[in-house]
Amino acid sequence: SSLAVIPVLIVFAIFQKQIIEGIVLTGMKG
């Protein structure tokens, strides 16, 4: 069961990173 969690964590980490970068970019522009 733990093996199925690994891909989810990887996708979540990448997704979270892109969200943070998007917030920072919009924050700098504004």
TrEMBL record:
Protein name: ABC-type glycerol-3-phosphate transport system permease component
